[in-house]
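PT: before anyone asks, these are the final sequences, not the draft ones from last week. 848 residues across everything. Please model them as a single complex and drop the result in this thread when it's through.
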Amino acid sequence: MRGATHAKWAACVTAAALVATACGGGGDGGGAGGAVLSSSWGDPQNPLEPANTNEVQGGKVLDMVFRGLKRYDPETGAAEDMLAERIETTDQQNFTITVKDGWTFSNGEKVTAKSFVDAWNYGASLRNNQRNAYFFSYIQGYDKVHPEKGEQSADTLSGLKVTGERTFTVALAQKWSTFPDTLGYNAYVPLPRVFFDDHDAWLARPVGNGPYTVQSYTRGSQMSLRAWEEYPGPDKARNGGVDLKVYTDNNTAYTDLMAGNLDLVDDVPAAQLRNVGSDLGDRYLNTPAGIIQTLAFPYYDENWSKEGMDKVRKGLSMAIDREQITETIFQKTRTPATDWTSPVLGEDGGYKAGLCGDACEYRPDEAKKLIREGGGLPGGQVRITYNADTGSHKDWVDAVCNSVNNALGDDRACVGDPVGTFADFRKRITENKMTGPFRAGWQMDYPLIQNFLQPLYYTGGSSNDGKWSNAEFDELVDEANAEDDDTKAVAKFQQAEEVVRDGMAAIPLWYQNGSAGYSERLSNVKLNPFSVPVYDQITVG
Amino acid sequence: MGRYVLRRLLQMIPVFVGATLLIFLMVNVMGDPIAGLCGDRQCDPGTAARLRKEFGLDKPVWQQYLTYMGNVFTGDFGTAFNGQPVTELMGSAFPVTIRLTIVAVLFEIVIGITLGVVTGLRRGRPVDTTVLLVTLVVISVPTFVTGLLLQLLLGVEWAWIRPSVSPEAPFEELIVPGLVLASVSLAYVTRLTRTSIAENKRSDYVRTAVAKGLPRHRVVTRHLLRNSLIPVVTFIGTDIGALMGGAIVTERIFNIHGVGYQLYQGILRQNTQTVVGFVTVLVLVFLVANLLVDLLYAVLDPRIRYA
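LR: through. Structure below.
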């Protein structure tokens, strides 16, 4: 017994020594790219399947292990062909997709048209409980495979057909010209046979077709990814691999970076933002990401949908001093919003600075006047609902309320209304129980103006939490989707956005930046428009 | 003795049922866990319904509780939202926290009792006053301040330790976190021992032992300490459960993937299965630790007997 304990102690000490040298010496086991870097990670909330991953932490891994038909340029966000050789359509509704030759999964299996069609059918099927299933809802036959109620009456989407080894066709339920540009999203990646044949083994160690392979995965603590040397794509990893380490708290990750035990932190904690300049200098990144924060309103509540309320909403928007809040609360990691999209779209993509106009500027006097004209705040007070468990929501909600109270000269005009957990917050939203404005945020799925408008403001949209409905807006979105020319489509979407503005469907607050800090060992660190580090471009040493 | 243990074990059943039921109800009133599963977006109704069914959330709470308890007795603690069985989470989390608790309790016993004996024997002297002052400071400073401060000084400034603990969490990495976790209890142990020793020092049996001419260390360890330890053992015993459950703060600071971390994640994601499972085990640990403490009394003081 005693002997065994001693042996265990010795083993632990050696293990620790090995880990220590691995950290100090840059590690071995890397491929052609050389050294391995370590990066902070959060435990993915859902099982790590492409169509089941809807948060950044799981998405980060999928982005390293998979490549889809398209890929978003890490800098511009433009959708570029990856595995897609051609995506053709004549009517904006039926697409013929040709997959490039020469791609394989890391286990040697060829990537064919079937790899895509099988994966998409799996993702859409109600039976598989995939949280991102609605990404396939534009494809014909979705209502059979994934009915809102009851059992599914088909196993596969009727709109998907394999027509050759490398070709397949997609028939959409409605016209959608920018559909090919959405195919860079993680839910659309191909899957190897082993995913279907031995699902548990695949989950324990995912196999994909991207620049990295999973070397080992201990759930809840660490995933070791290594560069895949035979990777056929143009974006081969420039480092030997990445060790993703789960941190219980991003403050600890930051401390570890300071102590030299970690190379990359992709979420600088709010408490450290004041020191980050002196701690890291130019090794701190603070770049725009496709995230906008807004205040949404419950339009199912007649207080908020009655005549004149658009004036009240506009007045509230004018009463918020965005400049000051982003500077003092967020240390400039947010930018005051002046439209309902994100700067990462670029002007060609539909971002239009200043589209919101006066309504997004701080004008306390006019705010007061507008609210009075609109009939005043319902019940004399607005309560901004938010979840208090994550993020720094309390800080900024209090600041927003302060700003509103000052502008209106009434310290009871606005109060924060915290909800204990995110789950409870979401529950109140889904059950239409909100009575006043509430925190809303949107992280884009793909860098398209469509993604910032349709899910949020279209009647019955998947994230239209306030149940806003406007026939003119819906019509403009439909027209935009049917447009065969990208520039014209974007212009139509902007027209639709103006409808959102005129009704002040939601108050835009600020665009969120991605932040990261890294050690001296690393260079070429960049964040993509999704605020995820572009791991394959990082060089070590 | 055997009958006493049996009676105590039987008493545990209502406590156990009550505690788990309470936790079950508390987690359930917090809201709909499925609503939080799909992020800032509504789960589509079909998937939400299926997930609800899969996790048994479509049934009334009392039925969920009965099914859950039924499963627990067969060793099935359900599945976490990320698809992992809760028993697997426990298998990785409990060993780590148990190690952390062992380190903490060792600190309490070794440092706490030693300091207590030293100060108790030298009551009113400078040593006593200094230790009393230090313990007062330790008790009044919150754990997260001590933790962050030690982490910053030892981990970053002087680089003596790694600021975060690796996933394997071997004993030597847990020394500083263990000390932080133990700090407040350690101060209490010191004070308890001190008072107890100071009191018993004047008792007849100690005077007799001294009069018999026994060597000083024998008087202290055999006669004085043994009798003075009863309140201390009670405290440490109940503290074991408290340390295991209360490690949330320490585990977060030092990145320890133990029970505190899993509980925190479970509460945040409102994962009934994880939270109830872990709390169930913690309740058991608490009950068993209390039973052991009671049994230890008889060892320390043979006059205490259990029929």
